[in-house]
Structures are given as C-alpha cells and as structure tokens.
C-alpha cells in the first residue's frame, strides 16, 4: 500500500463514494415507490394484474443486473431518433440516469417481494376483525397492516440496501464515475493494484456504517416487541415455578 497513491487519488475516490451513495439512495427510494403498486399487483385477485406483476418480478430478479444495465444504456442508443422525438434522449444520454433507472427497476422487483411477504405475514384474523369493525381498506392498511408489515420488512430492506451498494459497482462499466469508476480510472493511470484495496476498504466502511445504523433503527422500532417477549418469558417462568 503506497501512501502517496492515496494522497494523489484519495480525493477522487471520495468523490466517487459520494456518487455511489447518491446512486444507491436515489435508486432505493424510487424503487420503493415503484415496488408498492407491484406488490399490490402480486396480491391482487385479478389474474391479469397478478400475472403482469409476477412477470415483472420474474424478469428483473431472474436476469443479471449487468445485462439489464447494458440493455437500457446501449439499447437506448438504438432509438435515438424516437427518443429525441419524445424528448427523452437527454435523459438516456446520461450514463448516471441510465444506471439509476436500471437499479430502480431491479430493486423494485426485490422490494415488491419483500413488501408482499411482509403484508402476508400479518395474521388473517386481524384483517377480518378490522373489517368486522367497519374499517375501510385505507384505514385498515394504514393503521393495522402497514405498521406490522413495516417491522417484518425492515431487516430484508436493510439487506437489499447493502446488496444494492455492492451491486452498484457495475455502473462503472458504462462510464459512471462512482467509487469503482474512479478506482478504475486511477488504476489506468498508476497501474498500482493497491488502489483497489483502498476502494474495497471504502465499500466495507460504507456497508458497515449502514449495517450499524440499520441495527439501531431496528432495535428502536422493535423495542416494544422485545419488551413483550420478556414479559411473556417472565410469566412462563412464574407459571413453571408455580407448577413445581
């Protein structure tokens, strides 16, 4: 590890780290917005809607992210005239925009399945009890289903965020100067492999920071569940002691 290499290229690596963070957070948020109607489609009783939602999830989860990125970035170049006609070529001409679009579509498929599983984890009896009380679907979802589903989905969403951070490195292939893009450019000028070690350390720091923050968020939001578990454990211990 050469200290002078870090001094020379360290600022650019940090700039690339910021681009990676922007790419991941923007894709994750947009993907979450898109995932909600897709999850609703997966849960729909309408066969056509459910089939379309399933096809979307199946395609984006079943094909490599890099292939999706190439199809959007290089594929858009095959339709320059059509995209210019509708005013979208300016968007697809930017590699960063194409990367955000690709990652958004990809993570939306995974998040939709997370949301679907979390919603299905809510006991059916609670749905039926809420309907028996006369609650319409909006307050039923907002007050009964979503708070419980959010707790279940929290951990998988944290894993999806970490996976998206590591997968974002493929954006450098289409000239996005994220952390890996700046690392590749630094290596092309210095031919020193230790620059990749610095990049790996930065990725590790970012992932570990997010993991710790997510664990604290999870602990804060689920503290009442742990308290209930302790109460139930104490009651079970009392009953066991009484039985003896």
In terms of topology, how is this protein built?
Layout: H1 3-43, H2 47-62, H3 65-76, H4 80-85, H5 89-92, H6 95-120, H7 124-132, H8 137-167, H9 179-190, H10 194-221, H11 223-243
Helix pairs in contact: 1-2, 1-6, 1-9, 1-10, 2-6, 3-6, 6-8, 7-8, 8-10, 9-10
Describe this structure in words.
With about 240 residues, this protein is an all-alpha fold. The protein has a single domain (about 5-244), classed as MetI-like fold. It contains eleven helices and no strands. α6 (about 95-120) packs across α8 and α9 packs antiparallel against α10. The longest helix is centred in the N-terminal third of the chain and has 41 residues, at about 5-45. The chain is flat and about 70 Å long. It starts with a helix and ends with a helix. The relative contact order is 0.13. The model is unreliable at about 230-244 (pLDDT under 50).
